Amino acid sequence: LPFEDLLKQALLHDKEGKWYCFIQILESIKKNKTNLTPIQICHFNLACAEYFTLHQTYDSAGLYATEAKVKAGEKHWRNEEAKALLFLSSGASKQRNISAAYTWADSALTITRQTGNTALEAQILLQLALCTRRHFTAVANRSFPYFLMAREKALASGDSITVATADLYLGADNFELNKWPEGQPYFKEGVALVIHQKNVYLNYLVY
After folding, report:
1. Helix 98-115 vs helix 118-135: angle between axes, to the nearest 10 degrees?
2. At what angle do helices 38-54 and 78-94 cross, to 10 degrees?
3. How far apart are CA 168 and CA 164, in angstroms?
């Protein structure tokens, strides 16, 4: 398989719960890393950052994301830079460093709005929603506008995973506010989307 397809396949295996397949592909790529172009190395680092973020190994994710961000910044690879910032923000928010998480996500959002990458913008808006959700209680309603914007952009770009994630959070947070009629449609749609996805991380979110 071409390099980029190999990375996609590795990440797909991981989302299906076959993380060992990701590791096998990772190791095979590492053996030939000297033959990779700079952009391929950057994409390899981003794939590793995504994998370690999903597996909650945030120190490792941060190392790969930082390396990708530096190289992307040097080469003016704007979308790659935004994606690296997204992973840095995700790790920071999970480690309760909300200030850094906001800063990185906001920088990533600025980039995606300049490049017009709607799919990536949706993921970053979702991350900003999660940052706000961690910083404030559900009662504050501060995260709702970000979830709704993320949902809108994800629908426009055909990103059902981001739509499902936003729906599940919108449902859960409305339930917490005792707004059952408002939350139920979101939650139902989120669950329906998850059922059609082979994604163990979304399954964890439902349960």
Report:
1. 160
2. 20
3. 6
Give the model's pLDDT for residue 206: 81
What's the one-letter identity of residue 174?
A: N
CA–CA separation, 162 and 175 (whole Å): 20
Look up residue 69 and give its DSSP letter: H
Residue showing tokens 């990185």: 104
pLDDT digits (tens, 9 = 90+) for 62-83: 999 999 999 999 999 999 999 9
pTM exceeds 0.70: yes
Using an 8 Å Cβ cutoff, are 194 and 187 in contact?
Answer: no
Q: Residues 13, 25: contact at Cβ < 8 Å?
A: yes
Secondary structure (3-state) at 182 = helix
- At 93, the amino acid letter reads S
Helix, strand or coil for residue 37?
coil
Classify residue 6 by burial, with Cβ atoms within 10 Å: 0-12, 13-18, 19+.
middle
